[in-house]
């Protein structure tokens, strides 16, 4: 049990580093360039989605679906391969470097007809390396509570669809104002996680899990509406927009998975 607990901690630490690494990159880039790309008058716009926005969203969600399939396949490959499981540390480091490099390539390479294929490959590499990085956590869960994996996946899918629909069919100005609050909450989560590396507080850890789940549910709504507004302003970069939503989905799934296993372990300990 000591080995399993440390493996969970190690995998959770990697997942946290993944969140900070990607979301800080995304947020900083938004604050310096992307927020200037749409008209502030859109905050008070309540019209229906234009046809070009609908086409853009189809591109985003179809690319997201492919990315999630690749990520799942990579994670499943880790579960089946004893060789990959024997080199966990190297694999996680490689996954970390690959996700950073591919995300930076997607952002810094201009979106054009000539670069679409290369940027798509970079995003798919990002998705696959993310799946490999989550392999150790899924391996531990598959041994302890394997039934929580499909439950967490279904829950994440339902949450993602529900909050995406809420973002698309509600007042955009309301959810766009969530940006500053979500960014502040993410900073608080980072502080909690760093503190808990030394405090090892169970209460703080549980608080971090539930707050983190709420934060990334909020990011689903915020990112979806921001994508719509940026497309209205002429931004056609569906690959970068897909990466935003991919991070949101993966983090909702991770938080749900750990929460479900924490509850199951507490019930078993009480019994």
Automatic annotation (TrEMBL):
Topological type in the membrane: Multi-pass membrane protein
Coiled coil: none
Keywords: Membrane, Transmembrane, Transmembrane helix
TM region positions: 12-29, 60-80, 86-108, 120-142, 148-168, 175-197, 209-228
Record GO cellular component, one term: mitochondrial membrane
One function term, GO molecular function aspect: enzyme binding
Name by which UniProt lists this protein: Bax inhibitor 1
The keyword Transmembrane helix appears for this protein: yes
UniProt-listed GO biological process terms: cellular response to unfolded protein; negative regulation of apoptotic signaling pathway; negative regulation of RNA splicing
Main subcellular location: membrane
Native source organism of the sequence: Paragonimus westermani
Localization of this protein: Membrane
Keyword Amino-acid biosynthesis attached: no
Domain of life according to the entry: Eukaryota
Family: Belongs to the BI1 family.
């Amino acid at each position: 049990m000591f080995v399993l607990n440390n493996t969970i901690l190690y995998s959770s630490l990697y997942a946290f580093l993944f969140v900070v690494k990607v979301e800080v990159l995304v947020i900083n880039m938004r604050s310096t360039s992307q927020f200037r790309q749409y008209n502030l008058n859109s905050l008070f716009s309540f019209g229906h989605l234009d046809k070009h926005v609908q086409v853009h969203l189809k591109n985003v969600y179809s690319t997201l679906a492919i990315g999630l399939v690749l990520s799942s396949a990579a994670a499943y490959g880790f579960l089946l391969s004893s060789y990959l499981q024997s080199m966990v540390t190297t694999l996680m480091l490689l996954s970390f470097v690959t996700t950073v490099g591919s995300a930076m390539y997607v952002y810094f390479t201009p979106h054009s007809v000539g670069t679409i294929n290369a940027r798509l490959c970079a995003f798919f590499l990002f998705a696959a390396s993310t799946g490999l990085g989550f392999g150790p956590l899924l391996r531990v869960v598959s041994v302890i509570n394997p039934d929580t994996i499909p439950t967490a996946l279904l829950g994440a899918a339902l949450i993602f669809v529900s909050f995406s629909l809420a973002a698309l069919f509600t007042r955009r100005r309301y959810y766009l104002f969530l940006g500053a609050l979500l960014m502040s909450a993410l900073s608080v989560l980072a502080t909690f996680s760093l503190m808990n590396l030394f405090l090892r507080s169970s209460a703080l850890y549980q608080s971090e899990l539930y707050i983190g789940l709420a934060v990334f549910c909020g990011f689903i709504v915020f990112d979806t509406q921001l994508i719509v507004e940026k497309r209205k302003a002429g931004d056609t970069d569906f690959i970068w927009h897909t990466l935003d939503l991919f991070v949101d989905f993966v983090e909702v799934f991770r938080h749900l998975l750990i929460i479900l296993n924490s509850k199951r372990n507490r019930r078993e300990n009480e019994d």
